[in-house]
Amino acid sequence: MSRSPLIAPSLLSADFARLAEESQRVADADWLHFDVMDAHFVPNLTFGLPVMQAVQAVSPVPLDCHLMIEDPARWAPGYAEAGARNVTVHAEACTDDPRAVARDLRAAGSLAGLALKPGTPLEEYLDVLPEFDTLLVMTVEPGFGGQRFLAETLPKVRRARELVDTGHLTLLVEVDGGINADTIEQAAAAGADVFVAGSAVYGADDPARAIAGLRAQAAAARQG
Ligand code: DX5
Ligand code: ZN
Questions:
Q1: pTM (2 decimals)?
Q2: 88 lines ligand 1 (CB under 6 A)
Q3: Which domain covers residue 120, as residue numbers?
């Protein structure tokens, strides 16, 4: 595979009192992952659109918004209008056809992403995925940083990769949760393109070095 892996540090593990500096500490990342949680879809509450707009205004890195919220059709387009590179909604939270959300996101100028919790099968969404640009395979249960990577999600990554490589889908395959130096190679070998890493980047003494290390590991594992 020729395309180089994308590394997306998650601000969830950053110092919330210093979001501008924290976005600048990962200036050499590909995307900056922004986890929106509403205390309903997941049992945790983080930040929403006004904070995203403030970060967007100062971040050297394009934002990758991951909406772990109910009623995504109502809220997601605002993140695209605010300038996010990619906006991902959860399949489990879509009460209507996810394709309508994807169309709204693309019309507002962002990529459209669909996220699947570990227990949600990919096969149920094959008919809607042609309208999406990214598929986020959750490799932990959504809600918190610093959890252990669930290797049982890897078959879903492999299946998505296969569908892309055989021309059935055109998507970036993203993994999120428990990605670190011990797990990124498995996820890369399974076929992921985008790697979200919260604690592995912001928990490191030198986030730039952590990003470079993860990127090198992923690139090597994808070729091998
Ligand atoms: C979890 C979030 C993740 C989280 C990952 O619900 O979606 O993006 O920040 O954190 P780590 O990399 O520490 O597992
Ligand atoms: Zn996330």
A1: 0.98
A2: no
A3: 6-223
